[in-house]
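Figure 2 data, in text form.
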Amino acid sequence: MHVGRGRLQGGVMVPSLGGLEVRDAAAVCAELDLELRHREPRPALTGRHVVVAQDPLPDTRARRGAVVSVSTTEEGGGSAGVREPRRPRPSPRSVCGPARD
């Protein structure tokens, strides 16, 4: 039985935090009387860190004051990194020489 925005009598429904910036996820948790914690050592929040996993899962019932553990990644990061522009490939004509009639 819902009592208000994500709140249940005697507890709260854990919100989906995936895709939120850490600061936004912390604000959502605080509003529901939940505590946000990082699974790994807390990252230096110099960039834009986004929640990629959480425990407990969304829509799980939790008591007020419960801890929601999250894993984050720096948005825009990843294995690709910054790529330099590539030079265009040479056309077949420039490799094989001029077309012959």
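Caption note: The two ends are 82 Å apart (CA to CA).
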